[in-house]
Request: fold
Amino acid sequence: MNLTVEQAQGRVPVTILSLQGDLDASNYQQIIARGRELYAAGTRHLLLDMSGTSFMSSSGLVALHSLALLMRGESPPDPEAGWRAIRAVGEEVSEGQPANVKLLKPQPQVDRVLERSGLKQFFEVHTDREAAIAAF
Amino acid sequence: MSAVRRFAADLKNLADIRSFVQEQATALQVDPDMVADIILAVDESATNIIEHGYDGQPGEVEIEVRQEGKAMVICLRDQAPLFDPTHLPSPDVDLPLDKRPLGGVGVYLTRHMMDEVSYRVTPQGGNELTLVKRAIGLNPAQGEVP
Reply:
């Protein structure tokens, strides 16, 4: 999986992290590690460009959730905690907090995994890059 | 039609496992939407075997893909300690997240993507997980898979 980082300016500074390739159990921790680096460098609002993500397994769900926690200054969960590991994303939405991680253009397979897992409702999904940046 | 391939129990081989299943599904002219479901189910199952079954120990995952009538059948065999993933409870995703039982996200997705998931201990004493997707042949030029 190739990761590329861009910076954009909306109402707030937004980091765009593009995930290109397959996101599976062999590399999801690479995404989390990059999220740690970005947070340490000052990123607080992250747009995940998934237009080039051709495959995502449940490991990818853990990565997405971990990024959401990292951007809030919290520690990523134990991936083995299963559903509990992704619970805080729902709590964040239900508390009315603006999501600090948003998704851009997930491909059909990725969208299907989000939907089938019941997690799509907890991620703000955009199809337009500028609109996504402006939404933070 | 039947094809068997063995993979070292290493997460780096997941991409090759997915490619193998993709090739076999293409040969069977499986509907593309179903192919995506099947590949995800096999990936999740292989991940569980490698991560939790072998748990860092060396080993192999054998994958057999075969056609049975109008169904595509995938068997994953391994020699890791015996474990039946079909006995894990299935969460209700309509429940709020904090009401769902812990664990089993991959197993849940596998069950949801396939028509049938079963487990047995092989005569050699290993694990065998069988995934079945029915009514796969939808290519009008070829007609249904016999």
Observations:
- The domain at 2-134 of chain A is CATH 3.30.750.24 (Transcription Regulator spoIIAA).
